[in-house]
């Protein structure tokens, strides 16, 4: 809803700016409607349009890069889970409890982070994690407790020989990597768009469409084109905000890497 709200706010702001310009235009003295004045307004509009286009382009590239980074980190995180499971499987039956905890954690993470997708089958994991905010789901205390318990059980294991001792040391290193990766994903889940920067961009766009209202002819076609322009910019803002929140909205990180990890953990 945050993505839709941001887009609607920008769309309404641009239409309000246009409406103000249209209403003010008839009230201006004739000298303010001279050709030189209109040319000056067009030059200012061109400057602001250039600035706004550059900022929108940079914001789109930044949001896309952030989205791709989170996706890559999730694939790495899933691969780390698979590697830890493979090491524990080599260790033998003594590591089965840790593997079960990791399996339950992975299934719960999938179910809570992607609630609109089918949940993993089975009743071996909690399914009542709150669904208010996806970034908060990643940081849910029960998910953290499950992962911490797996680490606690891992530390309590004692190796009977040198071979198992090496596997246990390797497992601990892999577990620590997973914990660090989890907190990195939690931090990356939060929006990175600066609110003052976003407000400044919205102000520029407001001024641009106010200028459009001042110089546009008062006919239906002109108003329709301005409305379509406002709608296009609002849709660009929607995409930027959606990419900047990788676990909410229509554009989300794929759950397939985590589902692949769960498949390995279930073997």
Write a brief caption for the model.
The protein is mainly alpha-helical and 267 residues long. 76% of the residues lie in helices and 0% in strands. It has one domain (1-267).
How is this structure best described in words?
This protein has helices at 2-24, 35-91, 96-113, 134-138, 141-156, 162-188, 195-215, 220-244, 256-265. By secondary structure, it is mainly alpha-helical. It has one domain. It is elongated and about 95 Å long.
Helix-strand layout with pairing:
Blueprint: H1 2-24, H2 35-91, H3 96-113, H4 134-138, H5 141-156, H6 162-188, H7 195-215, H8 220-244, H9 256-265
Number of helical segments?
A: 9
Number of distinct beta strands = 0
Task: Sketch the major β-sheet.
Answer: none
How far apart, in Å, are the first and last alpha carbons?
38 Å
Write down the secondary-structure element order: HHHHHHHHH
Report the C-alpha radius of gyration, rounded. Answer: 27 Å
| Overall helicity | over 70%
pLDDT < 50 runs, ≥5 residues: none
Relative strand content = under 5%
> How many domains comprise the coordinates?
1
Structural class: mainly alpha
Envelope shape: elongated
Mean pLDDT: 86
